[in-house]
Amino acid sequence: IVSEQRVIIPIEINDSKEFILLDTGSTINIINSDELKRLKLNKSFLIGDLNSRYSTEALYSLKNCKSLICGKSYMQFGTSDISSAIKAIYDETGIEVVGILGTPAIKQLGMIIDLSRGIVTIKNEPNNLADK
What we know:
Elements: E1 8-13, E2 16-22, E3 30-32, E4 42-51, E5 56-63, E6 67-69, E7 72-74, E8 78-80, H1 83-93, E9 99-101, H2 103-108, E10 111-114, E11 119-122
Parallel strand pairs: 2-9, 3-8
Antiparallel strand pairs: 1-2, 1-6, 3-9, 4-5, 5-8, 6-7, 10-11
């Protein structure tokens, strides 16, 4: 964990080293739409609306989002304009994150979050068909 204020961890997206917020209250994994061009990502089909305390924005699926989280691959991300949330995280922590990793990824990756020691680990088990 790279911040004392929030659970932020390193992530690699399409060979770019970034940071992402772990959010056990989020039901989706999302990359801020402002980062798509820089990360060489393309949005795919419209999933629906993303409602947050900041606004309501369109939510799209992402194509070709290859990420590594603690050495494990994970590809299930959506994208929307979450700039306000990203700015709030930066204002609080001084760390620029590209998105939010929610409960689906935390569960599928088998993450164990130890806040008292500031450590996130991942069970050493296959997490998807590509890993088996």
